[in-house]
Amino acid sequence: MDALVLVLGVGAALIVAYVTYGRWVAGRVFTLREDAPTPAAVLCDNRDYCPTPKSIVFGHHFTSIAGTGPIVGPAIAVMWGWLPAVLWVLFGSVFIGAVHDLGSIVVSLRNKGRSVGDIAGDLLGPRVRLIFLGVLVMALWIVLAIFGLVVASVLRQYPGAITPVLAQIPLAVAIGLTVHRAGRSILAPSAVALAVMYASVVWGDAGPLHAFNTTLASAPMWAWVLGLLAYAYVASVLPVWTLLQPRDYINSLQLLSALGLLVVGLMVAAAVGGAPDEIPTMPATPTPEAVSPALAALPDADGGGDRPRLEIVAPMIQWQPEGAPPMLPVLFITIACGAVSGFHCLVGSGTTSKQIARESDARAVGYGSMLTEAFLATLVIAACAAGIGLGWSKVFVQSGSMTKLWATNNTVYQLGLPAHLLPGGTYPIPMSGPYRTGEAPAWGHDEARLISDDLWKDGRRLETPHGAVRSLSVPGHPPRTNTVVASLEIGVSGRLGWRIRYDTWASAQGLASTVGAFVDGAANFIKAIGVPGSVAVALMGVLVASFAGTTMDTACRLQRYVIQELARTFLPRPPSPMRDAETPSHAPTPDLWAGRDAFPLNPFRWLATTHGATLFAVISAAALAAVPAPGQPWSLATFGQGGLILWPLFGATNQLLGGLAFLVIGAWLIATKRPWWFIVLPAAFMLVVPAWAMVWQTFLGNGDNPSWVSQGRWVLVAVAVATLALEAWLVAEVAARALHASRTRARRA
After folding, report:
1. S-S: 345 plus which of 104, 109, 651, 678, CB 3.0-4.6 Å?
2. With contact defined as beta carbons under 8 Å apart, do 595 and 567 qualify?
3. How far does CA 502 lie from the centroid of its chain?
4. Which residues, in sequence order, are CB contacts of 250 under 8 Å at separation 6+?
5. What does the buried/exposed string (b/e) look like for 94-114 if buried means 16 or more CB atoms within 10 Å of the residue's CB?
C-alpha cells in the first residue's frame, strides 16, 4: 500500500502544480496567446515547419525528451534510497525542469523557431552563440553515437520487442499520410494504431516471428549501429509529418496506455497482492525422497500459490551504498530527464517550436510533458523499489560454489549448497532456501528457490528436457559416464530480490541491469491484473526500445539544425529580398539560397544544406562509434562502443546545458521586461551542481570511484576541463554584458 500511496501522492501533486504554478508561468510570465502567429504557420514549408494539432505535438515532444533517461536514471538512483529520488523528481520537475522546457519553447516561438543556442547570439553576443552551439554539437554527437548502441542493446536483450518496434515505422507513415494529406481526424487512426501496436506485442514473437527476432538479435553490433544510423538519416531528412511526428505520436499512445496499466496493476497489487506464486514450495529439510517430487513438478507448475504482498523493499535513504559515489552532487546528474535535462531545450527549441500551431499549446506541450515524464520516473522508482519484490529475480549459482549475494552490517550472507553436501557422491539437487551463513535479518518474505537446472557436460550445455537428469555431481567425485554438473538458476524475491540487484554500485550499473530492473518490476505490476508474464515483459521492452529510438532520430534532426546554424555563420548573408527586416541573419532559411554566394568549394556551403548537415551528423557519429574502448583493438567486434568513451561526461554536461539555457531564458525575460526572479535559483542550481559533479568526477573521486585523473583517462579529463572552461567563459560573458547594460542605464538616468 505504501508504494501506491507514494505514486498517487506524487501524481496528485504534479496535477496541482500544472493547474497552479504552470498556469501562472504560462499566463502571467510568458503571456501565451491563442491568436499569436507561430513559426509553424509563418514559415511553413511542410518539411521542418508544419502546423500540427496539439495532441500530435505533445506525443512528439514527450517521447523525444523521455528516451531512456527517466528509466535508467531513477533505476540507478534508487540505490541511494527511494525518498531522495522521489523528492528530486517532484520538486525538480515542477520548479526547474518544466519551467526550463516551457521557457525554451516560448523563447524559440518568439524568435522564428530558432534554437536556444542560436538565439543566445542576439541576446548575449556572438561569442556566446558560438560557445553555446559548440556545446550543443558535442552533446548531440555523443547522444547520436551512444543511442545507436542503446537501441541495439535493448532489442538484443529483449528480442520479442524487435517486431513490434519495426512495425511502428510503416504504421507511422500510414498515419502521417492519412492525417496530413487526407486531412482526416486523428481519433480513428489513433485507435487503430494502438490496437495494432498491442497486437504486435502479444503476437510479435509467435511462430515464425520468433525465429526472425532471434536472427536479428544475433546480428553483430556493428550491423545494428550502422542500420540504426542509416534509419536516423532517413527520418531526419524526410518531412516531419511523414515519420517523426506520427511515430512519436503512436509511441506516446503506447506509453500513456502502459502507464495506465502500471497504475491499475499497482492498485490491484496493493489490494490483493502480486501475481500468484508460480513456483512450488520446496521442503525445508531436503531429502532425496522429499525433493524429487517437487523437482519433477517444476516444469508443469501452473501457480495457485499465495499472492505476494506489495511493499517497498528498497531503503528509504541510503547515504553511502557500497561502492557508490556521494549522493551529493551525483544524484542530480544521475536523475536528469525525470527532473530536469538540458537535452530538453534542444528538442523544445529545435523541433517542437517549429510544429506548434497555437502559442497556448506550449503550456501543455512544454510544462505538461515534463510533469508527465516526472510521473513516469516515479513509476520507475516504484517498480525498482517495490515491483521487484513481487516477482522472482534470477541468480545463477554454479554448483558447489558459495556465491556472495549481499553484505550488510558487516555480515556477509551467502547462497549455495548446504554444508552436508560434501565432495564425493551424486545427490539430488536440493534448494529450499535460502541457505545462508551468518544470522539472517528479520526481513519477512525473503526467499530463494530453484527455478530450473541447466545441465552441462565438458563445458557444453546439454539440451535435455527438464526432469531428464536430476542429479548433481559434486567436484572431487571420480569421473563417471554421463556425469553432469548443474548450474543452478535461483529465484529470489522480496527484500532479498532487491538486495541482489543493488548489492553494490557496480552491480546496479549498466544498461542491462537498470533496464532489467525496471522491466521486471513493471512487468510484476502488470502481471497482478492477469496479463501473462511474457506479454508484460515484451510490452515493457517495446516501451524502452521505442523511447530510445525516438530520441535517436530526433537527436539526428537536432544535430542537423545546429550544424546548419553554425555553418551559416561562415557564409555570406542572403540577398535582401530573401528575408524581411525583422529576420536575424542566422534565422532558418530555405536551402535554395544557403551559401549560394559562397566559394563553391567552401565546406560550410555544403554543411548549410539539409543533406550535407545530416550526412555530417551521421558519419561523425559512426566515426565515434567505431573507436574502440581503451585497451581494445580496432575491429568489427568492438564497433559501436566508441560512444561509451565520452558517455561518462554526458550526465554533467547535459545538466550544465540546462543551466546555460536558463541564462538565455533569463536574458530574454529581462529584455522583454517580464518577471525573471523565479528562475534565479533554478539557474544557479543548474550551473553550480553539475559543475561540482564534473569536478568531483574529474579530480576528486573516492576509493571505489577513482577520479579520471587518477585513472589516466585523459580524453575525459581534457573534455571535462574544456567544458568547465567554456561554462566559466560563458557566465563571464553574460555577467560582463549585464554589467555593461546596468552602467548604460545608470548613465542615461
Report:
1. 104
2. yes
3. 19
4. 59, 168, 171, 172, 175, 190, 193, 194, 197
5. bbbbbbbbbbbbbbbbbbbbb
Give the 3-state secondary structure of residue 572.
coil
CA 233 to chain CA mean position, Å: 21
Q: Which residues of 334-346 are buried (b: 16+ CB within 10 A; e: fewer)?
A: bbbbbbbbbbbbb
Do the bridges between strand 485-493 and strand 447-457 make them parallel or antiparallel, or are there none, so unpaired?
Answer: antiparallel
More confident residue, 638 or 258: 258
What number of CA atoms fall less than 13 Å from residue 398's CA on the CB side?
4
What does the pLDDT read at residue 601?
Answer: 64
Q: Which of 666, 694, 660, 691 is nearest to 106 (CA)?
A: 666
Give how far Cα 573 sits from Cα of 128, 259, 318, 580, 596, Å: 20, 49, 58, 13, 10
Query: For the ranges 284-288, 425-429, 549-553, which has the lowest average pLDDT?
Result: 425-429
pLDDT of the residue at 539: 86
Q: Note the pLDDT tens digit of each residue in 579-607.
A: 333 344 444 444 434 455 555 667 778 88
Cα–Cα distances (Å) from 633 to 463, 487, 510, 622, 647, in that order, read 35, 33, 22, 17, 19
Q: How far apart are CA 362 and CA 686, in angstroms?
A: 23
Split at pLDDT 50, 70, 90, the class of 675 is very high
In contact, 17 and 94? CB cutoff 8 Å: yes
Give me the residue label for grid cell 561526461: 649
Contact criterion met (CB below 8 Å) for 567 and 557: no
- The DSSP annotation for 353-364 comes to GGTBSSTTHHII
pLDDT at 191: 84
Q: What is the mean pLDDT of residues 602-623?
A: 87
Which H or E run contains 412? strand 411-416
Q: 705 vs 514, which has greater pLDDT?
A: 705
The rounded Cα 265 to chain-centroid distance in angstroms is 22
The CA distance from 91 to 101, in Å, is 15
- Local structure of 662: helix, strand or coil: helix
- Indicate the range of 165-169, 404-408, 580-584, 673-677 predicted with least confidence: 404-408
**Region of residue 483 (left: phi > 0; alpha: psi -120 to 50; beta: else):** beta
Residue 646 and residue 623: Cα distance in Å, rounded? 13
Q: Which residues contact 45 (CB under 8 A, 6 or more apart)?
A: 590
- Its pTM surpasses 0.90: no
Residue type, 150: V
CA end-to-end span of the chain: 63
* Residue 273, helix vs strand vs coil: coil
